[in-house]
Amino acid sequence: MQTPPTVADPGSVEDLARDIRAGALSPVDLVQRYLDRIEAVDGRLEAWREVDAKGALAAARTLAQEAQIGKIRGPLHGVPVGVKDIIDVAGLPTRCNSQSRADIAPALADAEIVAALRVAGAIVLGKTHTTEFALRDVSPARNPHNPAHTPGGSSSGSGAAVAAGMVPVALGTQTAASVNRPAAYCGIAAFKPSTRLIPGGGVEPLSYLYDTVGFYGSRVADAAAVFEAICPTHARRAPPAPESLNIVVLRDPLIDNSDGEILRALAAAAERIAGAGHKVTRRASPVAFSGLLESHRQTMIYEISRIRRAFLDRPQGAIGPKLLDTIRQGLTISDDAYLEARRALDAWRDEFFAAFAGTDAILWPATPKTAPKGLDWTGDASFIAPWTALGGPVVTMPAGKSASGMPIGCLLAGMPGSDFAFAATARRLAEAAEDNDSVF
Question: Tens digit of pLDDT per residue, the chain (440 long)?
């Protein structure tokens, strides 16, 4: 029997939902399709921490019966979703890939984001692997494009699961680069909303300043559709977009050492966008991204050290060494230094977005290189973390493959709070620029 490939298109979220509404597809059959795919390939990829086949099939049967009588809960009715294992799902343990959580009891309630997905009709398929407490101690998940390479982190399993066709939608979280980087490395799309737009109740915290839930799909339209389905009512502002969008390709010395293939993919994406009739200009950043990166690092590890300080008192081996090292580093940063870094970030954020008023999206490389070989490092966060510090919505868009066959991703960044309109903008730009055909 031929071994199935580890990369597969899981299908369009909107197509699946439409077929379910039309009665052409049963949620039960759809869930079983993904369970079969998990059985076929996850032994080689380890994207899943726990698959809740019984719970998913039970939910699918209920949703199938509702669809038959025309009762549709929402735009994701019957669509399966994977949930990163730092996010609570009622009835399943939240282990956070940590020995300290090995025997933890199942969560009593869904995280707010999981509850919102269920209201929209989604079915929880299970929990995906994460790095330990979403930091640097790695997970066992592997990259579907080459299992000898990392899928990125910390949302390792979610990115791998979508890229391998094991689920059409997955949740991740980002404090530095943990949503956008796995998408780039795995050749899929991700939507990281503006900081604190999505309620974080029931999600294990790292940094209150940066923690953000994000969404994976095989295409930008898929990731955007999930965001749109659960976007808070107060944020549903989408003024009419102009026929020709204003796009900036940003320059900064930080990206000067990118691999040539990365920069060529970025240039090709910009060319396709311009060819679709949008205005593309190249401009230098008014703010040094090296400064954003360092201030993000200081404020992030300061907050991690205060939130997770008690981990230093756990028995040896209960908590991973990289997490403990980060806590110790953070404790060396004074309150005054933290506040100074925050003030600098606030000033830089205001300066940056004032300079790009009227810009619909900013185009930027997602990573300096493709996914590194080996599983002991989740890759370089330096191109993404500054955008996390800036706080606006950020989309990862597939941009083809390198000569070695590993995916390349580009970022589209928007203005803070513009998420609902930006989702529509990202869809339009992806139609012009997204290079999925060379990924799946």
Answer: 467 789 999 999 999 999 999 999 999 999 999 999 999 999 999 999 999 999 999 999 999 999 999 999 999 999 999 999 999 999 999 999 999 999 999 999 999 999 999 999 999 999 999 999 999 999 999 999 999 999 999 999 999 999 999 999 999 999 999 999 999 999 999 999 999 999 999 999 999 999 999 999 999 999 999 999 999 887 787 777 788 999 999 999 999 989 999 999 999 999 999 999 999 999 999 999 999 999 999 999 999 999 999 999 999 999 999 999 999 999 999 999 999 999 999 999 999 999 999 999 999 999 999 999 999 999 999 999 999 999 999 999 999 999 999 999 999 999 999 999 999 999 999 999 866 555 65
pTM check: above 0.90: yes
Alpha-carbon distance of 96 to 323, in angstroms, equals 12
Tokens, residue 99:
């020995």
The 10 Å CB-count burial string (b at 16+, else e) for 236-254 is eebeeeeeebebbbbebeb
Q: Which CATH superfamily is domain 1-284+352-440 in?
A: Amidase signature (AS) domain (3.90.1300.10)
CA pair distance 351, 370, nearest whole angstrom: 31
- Name the residue ranges covered by the structural domains of the chain: 1-284+352-440
The catalytic site residues sit at: 84, 154, 178
C-beta of residue 297 within 8 angstroms of C-beta of residue 305: no
